TrEMBL record:
<feature type="domain" description="DUF1330">
    <location>
        <begin position="2"/>
        <end position="94"/>
    </location>
</feature>
<dbReference type="InterPro" id="IPR011008">
    <property type="entry name" value="Dimeric_a/b-barrel"/>
</dbReference>
<dbReference type="InterPro" id="IPR010753">
    <property type="entry name" value="DUF1330"/>
</dbReference>
<dbReference type="Pfam" id="PF07045">
    <property type="entry name" value="DUF1330"/>
</dbReference>
<protein>
    <submittedName>
        <fullName>DUF1330 domain-containing protein</fullName>
    </submittedName>
</protein>
């Protein structure tokens, strides 16, 4: 079953973030079968309160694949850097009703 990682990321220096994080993280995402579905710097809130910032949706073949990406040893130093220079709220969820 397809799974999705949804992240709200708030960062001050977007150019550095893109260069230092995105360029290094995307190959690891792809190694785990992840495909970036959508990225929006200024999403519209239609109901409730959301954390704000950049919204990213990444599709994986399964919840396990998404968790494998997040826990990949190669991703850990990249994640640690991201956590130092940004704030984020992220979830992994499966498609379905």
């Amino acid at each position: 079953m397809k799974a999705y990682m949804l992240a709200f990321v708030r960062v001050n220096d977007l150019e550095t973030f893109n260069r230092e994080y995105i360029e290094k993280a995307v190959p690891i995402v792809e190694r785990h079968g992840g495909i970036t579905v959508a990225v929006d710097e200024n999403p519209s809130t239609i109901e409730g309160t959301v954390p704000g910032g950049r919204v990213v949706i990444v599709e994986f073949d399964s919840k396990q694949a998404a968790e494998n990406f997040y826990n990949d040893p190669d991703y850990q130093p990249i994640k640690a850097w991201r956590q130092q220079v940004s704030e984020s709220d992220s979830i992994i969820f499966e498609k379905g009703f």
